[in-house]
Sequence to fold (310 residues):
Amino acid sequence: MTSTRPAPPRARRRPTRPRPAERTLVSPLALAGTRGRLTYRIVLVTVVASATVVFLGPMLLAVTGALKPPAELVRTPPTLLPREWRFSTYTEAWGILNLGHFMWNTFVVVGGAWLFQLGVAVPAAYSLSKLRPVLGRALLGMMLATLMLPAAALLIPTYLTVADVPLLGLNLLNTPWAIWLPLGANAFNVFVLKRFFDQIPADLLEAARLDGAGPVQVMLRIVLPLSRPILAVVSILAVVAAWKDFIWPLVVLQDPQVQTITVYLARISTDMPLNTLIAGMVISSLPVVALFLLFQRQIIAGLSAGALKG
Fold:
C-alpha cells in the first residue's frame, strides 16, 4: 500500500512593485504641455548663454583688445568691438617681444614638468594600489597631508633646497631642474591615479603574473593601457599648472634669458604698449587652448571614468 504525500505548497510570487520614476528638476507632466516646454527652453538657453558669456567673455575681450589702438583701450566708456582694426598687432608683438625664444623656454619647462610628474606619480600610485607595501596607508596619508599646507609656507624651504641640494651641494637656480624636481612630488596626482588603479580587476593582473610577467611588465602592459583616460586628465592638469605658474618661476629663474613666458610678460609689462602686451598674452595662451581642444574627448572620458568591469 503506497502512501501519497501531499504536494508542497507552491511559493507565492510576490507582486513586483513598479520602479519609481527618476526624479528630475522638471517633471515629465510639466514638460508635456506647450507652456512647460517653452519655459524649459527659455531657461535652458538663458543659462547656457550666461555661462558662455562668463567663461568666454574675458577671452574675447582680450582678443579684440589687442586689435584696438592704445588710445581706444583706455577710453571711457570702453568699446566692445574695435573701431579701428589693427591685425598687425599680433605680428608686431611676436617680433618685438621675441616671443619665440620665451615660448621655447616655456615648452622645455612644461615638457620636463609633465615627464617628472608622470614618472613619479605613476609608479608611486601603482605600488600603493597593487603592490601594497608595508605602511602604505600611512605613506598615502602623509602625502595627502601635504595638500593641506599652503603654497606660500613651502616657498622658502623649497627655495633653500633647490639653491643648495642636500648631500649633492648643487645650485639649481636658473635651470629647469629647479621647477621639474619640486613639481614631481605631487600628492594629488598620486591620489587620483591610485583611486583609478584600485578599480582595475585583480584577475587581469593575476593572469599576467601567471604568464610570467613581473611587476614592472604588469604596470607597463596591463595597467597603463587601461588607464589612458585618467593619464590624459593628469597630463592636462600637469601641463596647464606648469604653463600658467608664475610665482615659483619668478623666484628660481632670475636670469631673463631662461624665464618662462608668464614671467617675461610680467617683467616687460611697464615698458610695452598695452595692445602689444595683450597680444603677447593671447599668443601665450594659444598652446594651452589648442591642447584642450585636441584632447577634449580624452579629458571628458577621464573625468567620467567609472569602475572597470572584469
